[in-house]
Write a structure and sequence with these properties.
Elements (H helix, E strand, L loop, with lengths): L2 E3 L5 H6 L5 E7 L13 H19 L3 E4 L22 H17 L4 E6 L4 H16 L6 E4 L5 H4 L4 H5 L6 H10 L6 H5 L8 H6 L5 H4 L14 H22 L5
Parallel strand pairs: 1-3, 2-3, 2-4, 4-5
């Protein structure tokens, strides 16, 4: 079955596309500070790569896949003290995802999969709320499938740095940017950055509310100098598989 870039299609092509076992994938990320070496749009770079990888896997499983344009703006309170960060209320994101699911459902798309690697707590709550309200809401909304990367069973399938919780603008995210958009990776700056092993997950558990409070005065955590494109390609493969398998389970197919 085909993979479609939704925004590149005409309305008649959408009308005529096969709706059987159809899935739309929505990349979601933030515009926020990612250290001195990664772009503000890092999370969207990762989400789009995750969406592509997921789409390839779902295509192989016989699904018709629509890859939607990304959502660039979401809750990003942890990074709100840094220039360039655009922080919006989580409720706005919940409403937007719910309305997208409703609009797709009316057109016969059965499942909306959210490709996401932005881990701000307010953002994650917003996506969980979107899952709950879209499934329960009126209007024949598409089911929303979302993989929370902070859940232990999921995190254990990702990289060693990710599992430490010190993974914002570090090796994990830098490697994906190197693999997907190498021109956006400021390698000379990354090479000069000292490791920052401060764990964001521990800081969140302790009630910290910002990168500064969590021990990230330059908006990075982890080991940015160790990023490699090879790790990035493998991370994208795993992220896509996690989301695709969640979609297949939600639709009653054994991954």
């Amino acid at each position: 079955m085909p993979v479609h870039r939704f925004a590149d299609m005409t309305w008649e092509e959408v009308r005529d596309a096969d709706r059987d076992a159809s899935v739309a994938i929505l990349p979601v990320g933030a515009v926020e500070a990612h250290g001195p070496h990664l772009p503000l749009g890092t999370d969207v770079v990762i989400a789009q790569a995750m969406a592509r990888s997921c789409a390839e896997r779902l295509d192989a499983a016989g699904c018709t896949v629509f890859v939607l344009p990304p959502v660039w703006y979401t809750a990003a309170a942890f990074a709100s003290g840094f220039p360039g960060t655009i922080d919006v209320e989580g409720a706005t994101v919940t409403t937007l995802v719910r309305h997208i699911a409703r609009a797709l459902g009316r057109q016969g798309v059965r499942t909306l999969a959210v490709a996401n690697a932005h881990l701000d707590p307010a953002h994650l709550r917003a996506l969980h709320d979107a899952v709950d309200t879209a499934e329960a809401g009126p209007g024949g909304a598409a089911r929303v499938v979302f993989v929370d990367l902070t859940r232990r069973a999921v995190a254990e399938q990702l990289t060693e740095e990710f599992r430490t919780g010190a993974c914002h603008a570090g090796r994990f995210e830098g490697s994906v940017v190197l693999a997907e958009e190498p021109g956006l990776f400021r390698g000379d700056l990354a090479a000069g950055l000292e490791p920052n092993p401060s764990s964001l997950s521990v800081a969140i558990d302790e009630g910290k509310l910002t990168f500064e409070e969590a021990g990230g005065p330059r908006a990075y955590f982890g080991w940015p100098a160790d990023a490699t494109a090879e790790e990035g390609h493998e991370t994208v493969r795993v992220l896509g598989a996690l989301l695709a398998d969640a979609v297949l389970r939600a639709t009653g197919v054994d991954p």
